[in-house]
Amino acid sequence: MQKEMDVAKRAKVIEWLKTEVVDHVSRLFKALWEGSTTRIMDSLASLMVSSYILGRRLGISYRDLDEAVLDKLRKHKQEGHQLEDWYQDISTLEEHMRKR
Fold first, then answer.
1. Rg of the Cα trace of the chain?
2. 47/32 Cα distance (integer angstroms)
3. Is the pTM of this model over 0.70?
4. How many angstroms separate the Cα of 48 from the Cα of each of 65, 66, 92?
5. pLDDT in tens, the chain (100 residues)
């Protein structure tokens, strides 16, 4: 009985985190519409936190997620992503993550 309750609780937490991610995206879009830098930053930070925690609940460590992000950035650079070509955003983010 206890194990079944634990599985149900885990599933419920994952579903709740998924709704949190959607809610933070919605809040981000509203903040963009309003032009509030403070709310944009808050929404982005909340989205990132929820994403990391959702990953952890799904069995992905924070370190592994960081590595996956770095791998994604390297791939974008190799493929000539437009944001890298235009603004060097990919390289700048990669450098930031490596310095942490």
1. 17
2. 14
3. yes
4. 11, 12, 18
5. 666 778 888 999 999 999 999 999 999 999 999 999 999 999 999 999 999 999 999 999 999 999 999 999 999 999 999 999 999 999 999 999 999 8
